[in-house]
Structures are given as structure tokens and as C-alpha cells.
Amino acid sequence: MIAWMYRTPLWAVVVCVTTAGLFLVGAVVHVNDLLQHGLQACDWAPRWLNFYWSSLALLDLLAAAILISGKRRGTDLACVIMTTDLIANWYATYGIQHSSLAAQPGLQRLLAFTAFVLGTAPFVRRHLTS
């Protein structure tokens, strides 16, 4: 499972492991929300948005596992998750809560992580296996 790490440049391994670790943190947060609040963790948000956030408990874990296995699909899934998560949170912040990026440190962190994932994915992907 980790044999790919020996034939991959160290910087790409570090990016994959770091990204996988942060996805694991996200999965733990979403599992915790599910256990404490169920599928409707944010009562102010529509049901579909809560369902999306709840699904991240599984999707984040899946992305982390695929990244650790050194598959290109891991970077692809990571990009999809981060893009859709940023859009969902942006909508929640601006469209529902009528707040701003400056007032939402969680959204700031999400934006930074999304930029990291999208910015590194094309470079890391070429060193991973199909």
C-alpha cells in the first residue's frame, strides 16, 4: 500500500500525506457532528446542505485512504470534495447567514486548504499511479 512512496519524490509524498491527514481531521469533525447532532447538524441550513456536510464524513475518509494508497483518483476526489465544500460553505456564509469571509475563520481555513489542494494536485498527480 505504501510502496509508491519509495518511488515518488519526497515532496509529493509529503503533500499527499499532509492532505490525507487534513482530510482525516475533516472526517473526524463530520463524524463528531453526526454523533452529536444527527443529519441536521446546522438547524439554520437547508436539509440538502446538512446532508452534503454529513456525507463528508465518508467522502473525506475515502479521499484520505485513496491518497495514502498513492492513486491519482485520490487527488481527483480531493479536488472535487474541496471545490464542492468551498462552494457549499460560501453559499452558507453569504447566501444564508449573510456574513463575510472576514467574519468566518472556518471559511478562511477552508479556502486556504482548497487552494493548497487545487494548487498542488496537478503536480502531485503525475507522480501517482492510475
Give an account of the 3D structure.
- By secondary structure, the chain is mostly helical.
- About 75% of the residues lie in helices and about 0% in strands.
- The chain contains 4 helices and no strands.
- The longest helix has 28 residues.
- The two termini are about 15 Å apart.
- The relative contact order is 0.15.
- The mean pLDDT is about 95.
Summarize the structure.
The chain is an all-alpha fold. Helices cover 74% and strands 0% of the residues.
Supply database-style keywords.
130 residues, 0% strand, elongated, mainly alpha
The largest sheet, given as strand count, sense and whether it forms a barrel, is:
none
Question: How many DSSP H or I helices?
Answer: 4
Query: What's the β-strand tally?
Result: 0
In whole angstroms, the N-to-C terminal distance is 14 Å
Note the topology:
Elements: H1 10-37, H2 47-68, H3 72-96, H4 105-125
